[in-house]
Specification:
- The chain contains nine helices and eight strands.
- It is of the alpha/beta class.
- A five-stranded parallel β-sheet has the order 2-3-1-4-8, with helices on both faces. It has a three-stranded antiparallel β-sheet with strand order 6-5-7.
- It is globular.
- The structure holds adenosine monophosphate (AMP).
Length: 221
């Protein structure tokens, strides 16, 4: 089964995808995480991608698509996968349909997360992630802080702020790009009848865990 996470940065995609991945035993494939790992290791892919990511721009499809194809071909992604951050535009979505069709698969469920814009910016600025690549647990300094400041509750590694999360201008660029390039995917998947839209908001008290629980109930029905 192939599940996609849609939604602007800071809506809780990573959190929901992580919870689904843990329960279903399928990998969470986050293009942003793959890029960040390559940036940290200073690979040629990382150096090239960072030119775009540091400015809040999308990495070109010629770089992103082959990277996702390789990841989807790995053995752990054969039973199911949760794509988080891909596709980001219609061209990538069409390419994904082609790649999956070659394997006799399709996109089965698209979880579209929304959140009020003021909450999104606040959440991104307060986001901290575990620096241990095998853990990558996400925290929020106000909503979901770690027990010990700066340390991951799960694995004890240091918590860090993503470079592109600390720059308000880069955050705004990413949100504008989302509206322009990625939002059309909502209609694209709605037409295919696979879209499930959920709002995550502190105001209503419906958080990532509630959404993940409901989706798991639907999948396991
Ligand atoms: P994310 O962790 O999903 O917020 O991604 C961080 C950054 O990586 C984005 O702001 C983009 O610059 C880049 N990125 C992630 N996924 C994609 C994608 N599917 N296409 C192009 N760029 C991407």
């Amino acid at each position: 089964m192939v599940i996609l996470m849609l939604g602007a940065q800071g809506t809780g995609k990573g959190t929901v995808a992580g919870l689904l991945s843990e329960s279903l035993g399928w990998p969470q494939i986050s293009t942003g995480d793959i890029f960040r790992k390559n940036i940290k290791e200073e690979t040629p892919l990382g150096i090239e991608a960072n030119q775009y990511i540091s400015k809040g721009q999308l990495v070109p499809d010629e770089i992103t698509v082959p990277m996702v194809v390789d990841r989807l071909n790995e053995p752990d992604a054969q039973a199911g996968a949760i794509l988080d951050g891909f596709p980001r535009n219609i061209a990538q979505a069409e390419k994904l349909d082609e790649i999956l069709a070659e394997k006799g698969k399709k996109v089965d469920l698209v979880i579209n997360l929304t959140s009020p814009k003021d909450e999104i910016i606040e959440r991104i600025l307060n986001r901290r992630v575990c620096s241990n690549q095998a853990c990558k647990t996400t925290y929020n300094l106000t909503m979901h802080p770690p027990v010990k400041e700066g340390i991951c509750d799960k694995c004890g590694a240091e918590l860090v702020q993503r470079q592109d999360d600390s720059d308000e201008q880069a955050i705004k660029n990413r949100l504008d790009i989302y509206d322009e390039k990625t939002l059309p995917l909502v209609e694209f998947y709605d037409k295919k009848g696979v879209l499930c839209t959920e709002e995550i908001s502190e105001k209503t008290g419906r958080l990532g865990k509630d959404v993940a629980d409901d989706i798991l109930k639907k999948i396991n029905q």
